């Protein structure tokens, strides 16, 4: 099969599209004929080699953490998923950007989602669902999401609003209308966040989610006043220092399904900003590292709607 692999750690230019062995479904998994994948921060962090001491890979390795595609093999012990189903979800740490991939956590893709949107939803859904779960009952509460316009922030906002929370979210100037369209009370990043939030929520903030690659975790703790009501999906060291909670993605189908169920109801539309072909995988990584929105990579010809 064709796949995007890297033989050495380094920048985007180490990625090459070449022949690679096909994976096959193992017990508790499904194999998909991949339609598209998304580029997540973990993809370029792993590829760079910055965390090879923590997450070592056998090189050459296929890049990619999540994907959407059509099931063509069903592993032993799998119930409710059949050959021909369109599903999205997670593979391993780095192995989905090929013509075939094995998913260990997945859900049926909502019919209303485009290929690009489904490709963007896997890792974002499980990360957001784990964070919202950690925050507990949000009904009637006000949640501040720093980085609400990103893939995880968009998913978390949908989940929080479905749980009955009022959501205030930060984003860049260009994303203010996007946030408002999601039913989020929008604010901007940067200095003065505390005062801006106070104007938007004079009764205070009950909880906060740090979903942006920023150094704002201390300010979020200050705004909320209780570090145990602040969750970060970014800053492990800061969480330990401040007493906030750090949440990581977990390969659990139940978490993927939370995003899918909201998608089916029209309450969650995954963010997908630009799509490129597999042959442009290096460019896709380069754009993602420059924070040029949520980048999707088409592996097979599908409904390219972006």
Write the layout of secondary structure elements.
Elements: E1 2-6, E2 15-19, E3 30-38, H1 41-48, E4 61-62, E5 66-74, E6 86-90, E7 100-103, E8 105-108, H2 115-119, H3 122-135, E9 142-146, H4 151-162, E10 166-171, H5 176-181, E11 185-188, H6 193-200, E12 207-210, H7 217-224, E13 230-232, H8 236-242, E14 245-246, H9 253-264, E15 274-277, H10 281-289, E16 295-298
Your description of this structure?
The protein is of the alpha/beta class. It has helices at 41-48, 115-119, 122-135, 151-162, 176-181, 193-200, 217-224, 236-242, 253-264, 281-289, and strands at residues 2-6, 15-19, 30-38, 61-62, 66-74, 86-90, 100-103, 105-108, 142-146, 166-171, 185-188, 207-210, 230-232, 245-246, 274-277, 295-298. The strands form three sheets. Strands 3, 5, 6, 7, 8, 15 and 16 form a seven-stranded mixed sheet that branches. A six-stranded parallel sheet has the order 11-10-9-12-13-14, with helices on both faces. Helix 3 (122-135) crosses helix 9. The chain is globular, with a radius of gyration of 19 Å. The two termini are 26 Å apart. Keywords: NADP.
Low-confidence parts lasting 5 or more residues at pLDDT below 50?
none
The end-to-end span amounts to 26 Å
Rg of Cα set: 19 Å
Mean pLDDT: 94
In DSSP terms (H or I, runs of 4 or more residues), the helix count works out at 10
Helix content: 25-40%
The outline comes out as: globular
Going by helix content, strand content and strand pairing, the class is alpha/beta
**How can the largest sheet be summarized?**
7 strands, mixed
Number of extended strands: 16
Tell me the strand percentage band.
15-25%
Order of SSEs, N→C?
EEEHEEEEEHHEHEHEHEHEHEHEHE
GO molecular function, one term: oxidoreductase activity
InterPro entries: ADH-like_N, ER, GroES-like_sf, NAD(P)-bd_dom_sf, Zinc-ADH_QOR/CCCR
Keywords: NADP
Protein name: Enoyl reductase (ER) domain-containing protein
């Amino acid at each position: 099969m064709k796949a995007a692999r890297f033989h050495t750690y380094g920048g985007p230019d180490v990625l090459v599209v070449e022949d690679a062995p096909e994976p096959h479904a193992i017990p508790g998994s499904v194999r998909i004929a991949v339609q598209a994948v998304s580029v997540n921060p973990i993809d370029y962090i792993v590829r760079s080699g910055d965390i090879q001491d923590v997450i070592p890979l056998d090189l050459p390795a296929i890049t990619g953490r999540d994907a959407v595609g059509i099931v063509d093999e069903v592993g032993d012990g799998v119930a409710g998923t059949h050959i021909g189903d369109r599903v999205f979800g997670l593979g391993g740490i780095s192995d989905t950007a090929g013509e075939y991939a094995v998913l260990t956590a997945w859900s049926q893709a909502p019919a209303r989602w485009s290929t690009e949107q489904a490709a963007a939803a896997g890792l974002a859904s499980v990360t957001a669902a784990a964070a919202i779960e950690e925050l507990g009952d949000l009904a009637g509460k006000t949640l501040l999401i720093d980085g609400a316009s990103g893939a995880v922030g968009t998913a978390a906002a949908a989940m929080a609003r479905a749980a009955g929370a009022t959501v205030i979210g930060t984003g860049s100037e260009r994303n203010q209308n996007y946030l408002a369209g999601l039913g989020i009370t929008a604010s901007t990043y940067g200095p003065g966040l505390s005062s801006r939030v106070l104007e938007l929520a004079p009764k205070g903030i009950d909880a906060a989610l740090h979903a942006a690659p920023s150094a704002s975790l201390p300010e979020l703790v200050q705004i909320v006043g209780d570090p145990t009501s602040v969750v970060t999906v970014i800053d492990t060291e800061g969480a330990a220092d401040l007493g906030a909670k750090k949440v990581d993605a977990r390969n659990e189908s139940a978490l993927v399904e939370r995003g899918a169920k909201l998608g089916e109801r029209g309450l969650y539309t995954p963010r997908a900003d630009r799509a490129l072909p597999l042959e442009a995988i290096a460019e896709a990584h380069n754009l993602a590292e420059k924070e040029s929105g949520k980048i999707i990579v088409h592996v097979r010809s599908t409904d390219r709607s972006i």
